[in-house]
């Protein structure tokens, strides 16, 4: 029997000590990354954020704001080398579980219209398209629309 990479991924809350690693991964993942200060504010303000590591290396993270009634997933990033190993699913499930505990009724998020892997992930977890945000994301050619998703929790 062979081991799967997913068996060796560790998950935990994001802490301030993780800021540099998260910012580095953010810059490697996006042409227009969140700023270091935005990430720092999310950590300082105790947003509901989780980190995935492999051999003490950050391989993914999710930043969300969970509240009773309505929650919002703000950023879900998995290192390109580690995608398709269940890391995004596990991070998403952690947020969904916290939403359930805090009795949040809905979860909202946005993703790029062209982000097929994110769209597939969210739809796998029963997020439904509810609209679009025109020119929401910067691109090298200008701007790109976002799809707005909503998941209703039981």
> How many structural domains does the protein architecture include?
1
Largest sheet: 7 strands, mixed
Low-confidence spans: none
CATH C-level class: Alpha Beta
Approximate helicity band: 25-40%
Question: What structural class do you assign from the helix and strand content?
Answer: alpha+beta
Give, in spatial order, the strands making up the sheet with the most strands: 1-2-3-4-5-7-6
Total count of strands:
7
What is the approximate shape? globular
CATH architecture: 3-Layer(aba) Sandwich
State the end-to-end distance.
Answer: 38 Å
Tell me the name of the CATH homologous superfamily. Gcn5-related N-acetyltransferase (GNAT)
Content of β-strand: 35-45%
| Tally of individual helices | 4
In the CATH hierarchy, the third-tier topology is known as: Aminopeptidase
| Mean pLDDT score | 95
User: Element order, helices and strands?
Assistant: EHHEEEHEHEE
Give a verbal description of the structure.
By secondary structure, this protein is α+β, with helices and mostly antiparallel strands. The protein has a single domain (5-152), classed as Aminopeptidase. Helices cover 29% and strands 40% of the residues. It has 4 helices and 7 strands. The protein has helices at residues 19-29, 36-44, 87-101, 116-124, and strands at residues 10-13, 48-54, 57-65, 69-78, 104-112, 128-139, 142-152. A 7-stranded mixed β-sheet has the order 1-2-3-4-5-7-6. Helix 1 (19-29) packs across helix 2. The radius of gyration is 15 Å and the shape is globular.
């Amino acid at each position: 029997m062979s081991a799967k990479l997913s068996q060796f991924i560790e998950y935990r809350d994001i802490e301030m000590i993780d800021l540099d690693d998260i910012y580095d991964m953010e810059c490697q993942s996006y042409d227009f990354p969140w700023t270091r200060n935005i990430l720092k504010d999310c950590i300082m303000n105790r947003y509901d954020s989780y980190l995935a590591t492999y051999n003490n290396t950050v391989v993914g993270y999710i930043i969300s704001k969970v509240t009773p009634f309505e929650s919002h997933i703000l950023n879900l990033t998995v290192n390109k080398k580690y995608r398709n190993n269940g890391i995004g699913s596990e991070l998403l499930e952690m947020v969904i579980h916290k939403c359930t505990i805090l009795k949040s009724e809905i979860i909202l998020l946005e993703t790029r219209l062209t982000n097929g892997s994110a769209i597939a992930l969210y739809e796998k977890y029963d997020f439904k398209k509810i609209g679009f945000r025109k020119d929401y994301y910067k691109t090298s050619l200008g701007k790109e629309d976002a799809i707005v998703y909503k998941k209703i929790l039981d």
